[in-house]
Request: fold
Amino acid sequence: MEICQNSVEKDESVYVCEITESLFTAEETGTITVYGIKLYNRDPDCAKHKGEYCEINDISDDIEKVKELKELIEELDVYPVHLFDIVEDYLSLIK
Reply:
């Protein structure tokens, strides 16, 4: 992977992976906190990676599962375009 000029350290990913938190309301469960993942380019001025962004807000209500997924995404240096597939595969394996 080519690193954007002066944007990141040599061993650091071009992408930032963050856990999101939001409220979800359903008749059956009431209001619960759900966690998701946001994956985006670290350097907004980098033309090569400009606009690369993906966010999934309702992956799980189990923060530990989402933390584990975040670590996996960072370890594998996942591109934002692949986030939906990675999350789908991960959820099918842990259920």
The chain has a mean pLDDT of 85.
